[in-house]
Amino acid sequence: MQPNPPTSESPSHHPPQCLDIGAARESYFSVGPRLDCISLWADPIYLGAYPAQAYELFGESMPKFTEQEAKVVSRSLEFMAANIYSGYKVSRGNDGQPLRHEKEPGNAVACLPWLELEEDALYWAARFHSERYGKLPFMVSENGFCGTDWVARDGKVHDPQRIDYSARYLSGLRRAAREGIPVAGYFYWSLMDNFEWAEGYRPRFGLIYIDFQNGKRTLKDSASWYREVITTRGGCL
């Protein structure tokens, strides 16, 4: 459901935006040949079985568990987490199947092409996960914005796009919490600029600018903004 994974840790899931909520939910949890669908990995753990669609698609290649083995795989966990950066709009196609819409020309995008602005992404991810996995507390383990930041002539790093991106996404997560969805936490990716395993040093995700030549650290404008988000518990959003 998504292009290349954005960080050095693990792939992110890209929740759909909703022109049709039912179709979007199906699209998000559908099993595809790329194997990057959340249900293929989460269902056995949280629901005790692989989704039926996986057996339809992969047939005899699917593992077969006894009832006892399924109980070993399935565990009662305290929360679930996902890395979420972007999303897409979904409607019901003429054939009755979910139809994923292509991005509109000029859609807001970060310096990596797969990271496009979809400000309701965290809201729908939290909602869909909560609906499918029984109100299990939901945590955003990664979310962030990559830019081609640099130190300005005033010695500061101005990154208004990162602030705007983060404010929009966090507002969606706050909406989910206010609707009663159990939001367990949120982690911004990342604290400092770093080596991105598929991209090297060019895309900068950090709240803190790193001069890769000498290691000097400079707080970006977003670091001061994010500190205010934390101290006000989201009140400044």
Count of discrete structural domains: 1
CATH topology description: TIM Barrel
The global form is: globular
Under the CATH scheme, the architecture is Alpha-Beta Barrel
Task: Give the averaged pLDDT, no decimals.
Answer: 89
Low-confidence stretches: 1-11
Relative helix content: 25-40%
Q: Could you state the CATH homologous superfamily?
A: Glycosidases
Tell me the name of the CATH class: Alpha Beta
Order of helices and strands: EHHHHEEEHEHEEEH
What profile does the largest beta sheet have? 3 strands, mixed
Measured by DSSP, the beta-strand proportion falls in 5-15%
For the CA atoms, what is the radius of gyration?
19 Å
Distance between the termini: 30 Å
Number of helices: 7
Structural class estimated from helices and strands: alpha/beta
Question: What's the topology here?
Answer:
Elements: E1 16-18, H1 21-29, H2 38-46, H3 52-58, H4 67-73, E2 80-83, E3 88-92, E4 98-100, H5 121-132, E5 138-143, H6 160-178, E6 183-188, E7 208-210, E8 217-219, H7 221-231
Parallel strand pairs: 1-3, 2-5, 5-6
Antiparallel strand pairs: 3-4, 7-8
Helix pairs in contact: 5-6
Structural features, described:
The protein has a 3-stranded mixed sheet. Strands 2-5-6 form a 3-stranded parallel sheet, with helices on one face. Strands 7-8 form a two-stranded antiparallel sheet. The radius of gyration is 19 Å and the shape is globular. It is of the alpha/beta class and 237 residues long. Helix 5 runs parallel beside helix 6. It has a single domain, classed as Glycosidases (TIM Barrel, Alpha-Beta Barrel), CATH 3.20.20.80. 31% of the residues lie in helices and 14% in strands. The relative contact order is 0.15. The N terminus is likely disordered.
